[in-house]
Amino acid sequence: MFGELPRSPDSVGPRDRRARFRELLSRPGIIVQPSVGDALTACVAELIGFDAIALGGYAVGARLAITEPLLSVDDVAATVRYISLACGLPVMVDAGAGWGDPLHVMRTVRVLEDAGAASVHIEDQMFPKRAHYHRGTESVISQPEMVAKIRAALAAREDKQLVVVARTDAMRTDGYEEGIRRASAYAEAGAEMVMLFPNQVDEAMRAPKDLSGIPLIYVNSTGNRFDRPVLSAQQLQEWGWKLVYDSFAATGAMVHSLQVMLTNLKATGASGLDPALMIDARNFVEKAIGLERYYRIEEETVERRN
């Protein structure tokens, strides 16, 4: 039911992951990657068969029960390290606004690269970010400021295979044309992919044509309160987008299931979950964390009977 155990991540180093991500980018077709906030979710995604994952700021913040703007670069880097130790997939890391000006962006890139990131995306929002961005109240920095951050990020890489992604929120704050103008400028500055946030379906359809030759990332925000379209990978591929991920679905699904179960537990003292399904779930978790490998090591060492 669950397939074979994944290859041990011990044999998949950061350079291998970055090379793998670049190979995925060179293929025709769209890349679908889920946004995760922890190593277990990353391992489950690997078992399901995804080729890459995203470490989303919203997901990491939610896991720590804080808003994304309160995350530190060390919070994010620690999560990247846990994922890299457990999972062999390339990880695209949300680096927010880079934690400051170009000098801080350089430090951010070096820290996340060392932690194992295959790619990082940096946005043109102000720093420090404010919690109000969750309400759609955003402030973008000037285009020249963001171009300087992109160039700093590119210069900071020790491994040139690390993919630097520029994210622009200008389409949401200043309209479609400004978003297109900035995306073009960021690609010209050296960003290898650009993340956009179209407000309407027709904008999502137009953007790849208006930015021909630039690999574009679409973010599905399931459960968003601003009527931003959630679109299928097939549709986005037909329009010319290169990568899509959902920033909230995995977090939302876990919280919804947990809410239902805990409500039952509080009311009845029992979870209400199907025992057979829970056995399957436990088996899946143990496959995801590689428990059989640990059993083998113990059997060959401390559990060995002479």
What's the helix and strand layout?
Blueprint: H1 14-26, E1 31-32, E2 35-36, H2 39-48, E3 53-55, H3 57-63, H4 73-86, E4 91-94, H5 102-115, E5 119-123, H6 143-156, E6 163-167, H7 170-174, H8 176-188, E7 193-196, H9 201-210, E8 216-220, H10 233-239, E9 243-246, H11 249-268, H12 275-288, H13 291-300
Parallel strand pairs: 1-9, 2-3, 3-4, 4-5, 5-6, 6-7, 7-8, 8-9
Helix pairs in contact: 2-4, 2-12, 4-5, 5-6
How would you characterize the overall build of this protein?
The protein is of the alpha/beta class and 306 residues long. The protein folds into 2 domains: 9-255, Alpha-Beta Barrel (TIM Barrel); 274-306, no CATH class. 49% of the residues lie in helices and 11% in strands. It has 13 helices and 9 strands. The protein has a 9-stranded parallel β-sheet, sandwiched between helices. Helix 6 (143-156) links the parallel strand 5 (119-123) and strand 6. Helix 2 (39-48) crosses helix 4 (73-86), helix 4 (73-86) runs parallel beside helix 5 and helix 5 crosses helix 6 (143-156). Mean pLDDT is 93; it is low at 1-6.
Unreliable runs, pLDDT <50, ≥5 residues? 1-6
Q: Mind telling me the CATH class of the largest domain?
A: Alpha Beta
CATH topological fold name of the largest domain = TIM Barrel
Q: Helix-strand pattern, N to C?
A: HEEHEHHEHEHEHHEHEHEHHH
Strand content: 5-15%
Number of helices: 13
